[in-house]
Amino acid sequence: MDFECSDVGVWKEALSAYPSRIRSLNKPNLVSLDEFYCNELPSLIHQRNPNPYITTSELRKLMQWKLTRGKWRPRLLDFVSSLDEALVKSASEKAFQCLPDISKAISELTVLKGVGPATASAILAAFAPHFAPFMSDEAMVAALCNSKDYSLKQYLAFVNKLQTKAKELSSQGASFTPSDVERALWSCAMGNLLASQLDQEPKANPSRSSKRKRKN
Fold it and tell me: Superkingdom, according to UniProt (predicted)?
């Protein structure tokens, strides 16, 4: 699926395949971590009225999800695990209050050690998926043809592209958030990866197997 594709049915199919793609990776705890990130964490954050925030333990679990679904970098997990609870609460509170100004929200979160724009985007996406998508490598490649630049400037360009695509798809009667667009792009990339791995698997030679049978 190309990012420029405007067929809402294709996007819906990619998004609906997301849970099966998560399972197909066969990574330890990824299914439960994804359930936590997509369903449990947003509810936990929004229950904290009037000033929503995220806790250190929740940030640690979010980081586990991010690293398990993407590239494993254990030092980041060590950094966020040792963060002060009051600091995490304060930074996330301020960040959520900054929305819809995504630039300011990201800046509030990146004061935390181990939290760059990509991890900050995951925090914002859990709280406000209709504003901020997660900055995944796969979606970055699809939208911007680049997954090496993790700067705030690059994230803002990424947000703009995914917000525009979400509006385009939603105008066709679907209900797509920028986060839905990111998951659909990730799902499609994983589907392509799995298909290529299957193609590369050595295939049995039927003529050889039949010869062995005759010899037996």
Answer: Eukaryota
pLDDT 10s per residue in the chain (216 long)?
899 999 999 999 999 999 999 999 999 899 999 999 999 999 999 999 899 999 999 999 999 999 999 888 888 899 999 999 999 999 999 999 999 999 999 999 999 999 999 999 999 999 999 999 999 999 999 999 987 889 999 999 999 999 999 999 999 988 999 999 999 999 999 999 888 777 666 665 555 544 444 444
**Cα 124 to Cα 133: distance, rounded to the nearest angstrom:** 8
> What's the rounded Cα separation, in Å, for the pair 206 and 73?
44
Handedness of CA 36, 39, 40, 43 (dihedral sign): positive
Q: Are 106 and 163 within 8 A, CB to CB?
A: no
Cα 128 to its chain centre, rounded Å, is 14
195 burial level (CB within 10 Å; 0-12, 13-18, 19+):
exposed
pTM: 0.89
